[in-house]
Amino acid sequence: MPRRTPRTILDRLRTPRRFPKFLMGASVCVLIAGLLTPLSQAIAADTPAAAANDYCGSQCSDILPAGQNGNATLAEILLNQAFGTQPAHADDQLAPYGNLASGYSALTDAKINDFFRDASFGVPADQVESTLKPAGRTDVTIVRDKKTGVPHITGTTRYGTEFGAGYAAAQDRLWLMDVFRHVGRGQLTPFAGGAASNQGLEQEFWRHAPYTEADLQAQIDSAVADNGARGQQALADVRAYLAGINSYIDASDSGRYFPGEYVLTGHKDSITNAGTIEHFKETDLVALASVIGALFGSGGGGEVNNAVSLLAAQSKYGVEEGTKVWESFRERNDPEAVLTVHNGESFPYATRPATPQGAALPTAGTVTEEPLVYDRTGSAATATATGTTASATASALSSARRGMSNALVVSGKSTASGHPIAVFGPQTGYFAPQLLMLQEIQGPGLSARGASFAGLSMYVELGRGQDYAWSATTSGQDIIDTYAVELCQDDTHYLYRGTCTAMAKVEQTNAWKPTTADGTAAGSYRMQVWRTKYGPVTHRATVDGKKVAYTTLRSSYLHEADSIIGFQMLNDPDYVKSPQTFQAAVQHINYTFNWFYADAQHTAYYNSGDNPVRATGVDAEFPVWAQAAYEWKNWTPTTNTADYTPASAHPNSIDQDYYISWNNKQAKDYTTAPWGNGSVHRGNLLEDRVKKLVTAGGVTRASLTKAMADAALADLRAEDVLPKLLQVIKSSPVTDTTAAAAVTKLSDWVTAGARRKETSAGSKTYANADAIRLLDAWWPALVKAEFEPGLGSDLYTAMTANLPVDEAPSAGHGPTGSHAGSSFQYGWWSYVHKDIRAVLGESVQGGLAKPYCGGGTLSACRDILIGTLKTAAGRTAAQVYPGDDLCSAGDQWCADSVNQRTLGGIKHGKISWQNRPTYQQVVEFTSHR
To answer: Would you state the torsion angle of the CA atoms of residues 123, 128, 129, 134, taken in this order, to the nearest 10 degrees?
Structure first.
């Protein structure tokens, strides 16, 4: 049965059910002609914005596919659906971004902007496409450039500057912003339609943050009250920003150039213009922030799954030996793991206690997941809908696997110019329109250019200032704990510090009906979460004969707005003037990120997040009793505040010879919350290349970009694990003809560089295609054959729930599903690597507690590898790549390809697979203030 990619939000607009016959009629031309008439948007001004102080010397570049323009009128959507035409600046950054995969080998500094775009401040007079005074204001100007249409916002007052930022955001991403404020509130289906994927999305995120309107407002009040003058300024900035958004809503509504998706989803009438586009309010931005934080900035969780797998290991091997086996797979502090801070500095955090205290492990077989959805009707009661809920629940309750983004930063000591060089950016998936948007913002206390999440662009979140640049990767350290609250009276009361206390029920009923955009039949359901002082309930179980509810408590829960202060500081040229002040700024960001910095003289790194100080003896890997002795130090439940580890305890560094990050382990003794940080991690793909460059010296922007681009095409399994597998197979002559042919193909691929790369630009055929197909088919089979016999099926299944076996480009995985680019982060490559090296008799630090491949015998292991390889060789391309909504069965290139998943009415073409940041900067500052 063909695999189908998830239909996220308005994915149905690719082939809307009632569109095709309508579009074939001649009347469409008349309709489009009529709809095109109201497209002039605002009063234009005729003076371009002047460039602010820029110390980059034309050596700052960036790129964000598909394009800056993420809004489309109904006419533009119809034209795109009928003829494939693109609105202006909707996809003009897609081709240069995609072309790097085939063009990087010949890259020079002079050619960087063939694949990136100039990120200098300002717009030259001859490059001005439009100049706008939004709402006729005299204190702000929005200039857009001809090449990309990026808004360059210049204000003479702080209010005007932020008003302009809000207006420009709505010009470029109004529909997307509206979608995600509804996702954050758990109200996507009534807004965008009842597609199963929409149900899953709202369920997953509402389970993470089931906030009431009062909760959202309280977070704003708290962030303002706790941050003095900067808090007051942030509130003023938000209000000005919202005024700009709402001004655009009113103007586009009266002028009838609002996004066409509002018509297609039934919110506006294309003929009478009846209907309403709701104004944005302050709490909408908190709801938006909660989505972004859950996706990319909240490490930890999964303690119940950890406990279940530990119990399975202890059942298999006994308590002592089973614990050793479990710990060896967990790789909390693997000595072979690649590190971002690599000079030996130790930053102990969430380490395994010598004598654990307060553990609340469930009785085997008693764990059940807490239901979220009730009272299903209509299409919400179908098997597809219930299956979607199960997937959303598994994703929400597992250990956080949210890592994306990478960074390569080299000190000036190793560059040709003597100035630091950085190639970095967030890997946030691919959408149409993109989650991020570009802008330049210049005004009192504001001077930056870069990317921000749509609807949160009152400040640049990742980008550059006058003489410095910064970026982030997801770090994922553990800021989420699971507590076992003992039940009393009934299933909705629990003991809180000795008192039987009622849980609070938060619920929401969603209903939908078919629209042009989403023909899903009418349906409804009620979402319900029980909240305790220790967070929302996620599971029920029995512990030591007592009925308990497991809850999840995140340090950023009820604090989604707090990080605004850090971003405000990053945009303030009077605050960030050095690596030290940069580090001080990002310390105010409570989400879990790795932050990188470069100016003309220095580089720096800091790991952010509110890391709670846990009680002595608490093991963060497992649930603990909800008792005062095991709570976070000085925890206040009403505000969810506690003591947090000091800045000096977070991994940090200034002027290390180089930094790399691809969501790998931060530093020695800093426990990583996700599984899979062992001897082989995709961070090694950067480490090996950058270390080689630094050793040789003379690093340039081009050479560092080439290192990134080469890693972006590498198959981690083939580069770092396959040579060891082939070494085992070749330990004796391979006499079987099928196996020998497969070994030859795989060996040739390794020799050629183990990349998933087209034979030539645009060929849509991989070089070494047969070898790639072989490994894609072989890897899952060899892992199962290598480990399941030794672990047993129960323990093997439990371990794969903690860490999936594979994450190849063609697989549907991560927060964005298939065709998402990001690959090779989570998988069993380290386990295979360590086990196979042990079989070969090599030295292994932090090895697995037991041998698995062939019981540790070389000949038996070889037999397993050859047997599974022969089976893989017999699988056809159509079996390995079964096809989906975008690709026919057997199309290997297409199965890997990156697609901008539609979140609105405009669709874009596919590009060849690359594993790299969505938004990316290449920077080398030439001077400093």
So the answer is: 70
- Confidence check: pLDDT of 686 > 60: yes
User: Residue 704: which of 271, 36, 116, 227 has the closest Cα?
Assistant: 116
**How many angstroms separate the CA atoms of 781 and 790, rounded?**
15
What CA–CA distance (Å, rounded) separates 288 from 266? 23
For residue 746, give both structure tokens: 């795989």
What are the tens digits of pLDDT across the range 747-803?
A: 999 999 999 999 999 999 999 999 999 999 999 999 999 999 999 999 999 999 999
Angstrom distance (rounded) from CA 326 to CA 736: 37
Strand partners, 490: 488
- What count of other Cβ atoms lies within 10 Å of the Cβ of residue 111? 14
Which pLDDT band holds residue 817 (cuts at 50, 70, 90)?
A: low
Q: Please say whether the beta carbons of 583 and 652 come within 8 A.
A: yes
- Gyration radius of the chain over CA positions: 27
Query: Is residue 827 within 8 Å of residue 303, measured between CB atoms?
Result: no
DSSP annotation of 665: B
Alpha carbons 58 and 51: distance in angstroms, whole number: 12
At 75, list the tokens: 């006419």
Cα–Cα distance between 443 and 433 in angstroms, integer?
27
Return the residue matching tokens 């492990």.
361
Sign of CA dihedral 324, 325, 326, 328: positive
The residues with which 505 forms a beta bridge, in sequence order, are 530
Q: Which DSSP state fits 582?
A: H
3-class secondary-structure state, position 799 = helix
Q: Assign 3-class secondary structure to 517-534.
A: CCCCCCEEEEEEEEEECC
Task: Return the closest-CA partner of residue 620 out of 655, 654, 671.
Answer: 671
Contact 865, 843 (CB under 8 A): no
Quote the Cα angle for 777-782-787, to 5°: 145
How far is 825 from 823, CA to CA, in rounded Å? Answer: 6
Please provide the DSSP assignment of 269-337 as one string: -TTT--B--PPP-HHHHHHHHHHHHHHHS-----HHHHHHHHHHHHHHH-HHHHHHHHHHHH-TT-TTS
Taking the C-alpha atoms of residue 579 and residue 467, their distance in angstroms, rounded to an integer, is 11
Structure tokens at 619: 């093991």
The yes-or-no verdict on residue 2 having pLDDT over 70 is no
Instruction: Express each pLDDT in 558-599 by its tens digit.
Output: 999 999 999 999 999 999 999 999 999 999 999 999 999 999
b/e code 272-300 from CB counts within 10 Å (16+ = b): eeeeebeebbbbbbbbbbbbbbbbbbbbb
Main-chain phi, psi angles of 248, to 5 degrees: -65, -40
Q: What is the DSSP string of 675-709?
A: S--SS--THHHHHHHHHHHHHH--B-HHHHHHHHH
What the block records as the tokens of 735 is 């006499």
